[in-house]
């Protein structure tokens, strides 16, 4: 049976709120609306949304505090932040608090729809627990298996789901195990000329990537920090990349 996604929008600007509602309804989603974080929390008490779109700068309780409250009780609900061009620090903090993604205002409608679809895909299609059924089978001796075409990643034979940026960062590091990549180089390759990102953005994405690809916390990490320089793929692990 098809389950229609319910998207909660928490936005204090009426024009943007109505625009987001229209966009999501065009995609056949049910929409719940709130103009404050407090109102959003009340809605969640009665109806659990499939996903949440929230502005960072809300009157009263901030979007960041709202996200923290939601994640403390319903960590499974993904949150997409809306942020202004000057909210770089808040965007990074939002990711650290558990938000899945963010988009900068003014936003591109097609990009917004695409990001929502990616988030919902993770909700309705959780990652597989093993590598069965792959067209290209991971080498049993490989610690990291990357299928570039399918954009699939297996760590110790267990599939993990990465965001586009996380996948691209892992691909960059795995392309030369042992080589140290500076934050500046990672920014140039992954974010190109985006002036709205900083070194801290790299740190946050690396941190979340590490969490997802760590299946044996007692073993050395697959992605290592070289203090004061940058990051590298552990030179002692075996990486298999299938193009």
TrEMBL record:
GO terms for molecular function: phosphorelay response regulator activity; transcription cis-regulatory region binding. The keyword Secreted does not apply. Gene3D superfamilies: 3.40.50.2300, 6.10.250.690, Winged helix-like DNA-binding domain superfamily/Winged helix DNA-binding domain. The modification 4-aspartylphosphate is found at residue 55. Residues 136-235 bind DNA. Keywords: DNA-binding, Phosphoprotein, Two-component regulatory system. GO terms for cellular component: cytosol; protein-DNA complex. GO terms for biological process: regulation of DNA-templated transcription. PANTHER family: PHOSPHATE REGULON TRANSCRIPTIONAL REGULATORY PROTEIN PHOB, REGULATOR OF RPOS. This is DNA-binding response regulator. It comes from bacterium (Candidatus Blackallbacteria) CG17_big_fil_post_rev_8_21_14_2_50_48_46. The lineage of its organism: Bacteria, Candidatus Blackallbacteria.
């Amino acid at each position: 049976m098809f389950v229609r996604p319910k998207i909660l929008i928490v936005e204090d600007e009426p024009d943007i709120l109505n625009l987001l509602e229209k966009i999501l309804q065009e995609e056949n989603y049910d929409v719940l609306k709130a103009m404050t974080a407090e109102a959003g929390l009340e809605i969640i008490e009665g109806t659990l949304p499939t996903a949440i779109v929230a502005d960072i700068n809300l009157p009263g309780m901030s979007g960041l505090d709202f996200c923290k409250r939601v994640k403390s009780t319903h960590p499974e609900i993904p949150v997409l932040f809306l942020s202004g061009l000057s909210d770089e620090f808040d965007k990074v903090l939002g990711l650290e608090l558990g938000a899945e993604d963010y988009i900068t205002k003014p936003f591109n409608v097609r990009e917004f729809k695409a990001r929502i679809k990616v988030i919902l895909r993770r909700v309705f299609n959780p990652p597989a627990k093993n590598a069965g059924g792959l067209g290209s089978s991971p080498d049993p001796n490989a610690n990291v298996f990357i299928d570039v075409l399918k954009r699939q990643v297996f760590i110790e034979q267990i599939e993990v789901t990465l965001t586009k940026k996380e996948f691209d960062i892992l691909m960059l590091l795995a392309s030369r195990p042992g080589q140290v990549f500076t934050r500046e180089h990672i920014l140039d390759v992954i974010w190109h000329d985006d002036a709205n990102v900083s070194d801290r953005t790299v740190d946050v994405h690396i941190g979340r990537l590490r969490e997802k690809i760590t299946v044996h916390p007692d073993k050395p990490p697959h992605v290592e920090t070289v203090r004061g320089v940058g990051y590298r793929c552990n030179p002692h692990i075996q990486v298999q990349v299938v193009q």
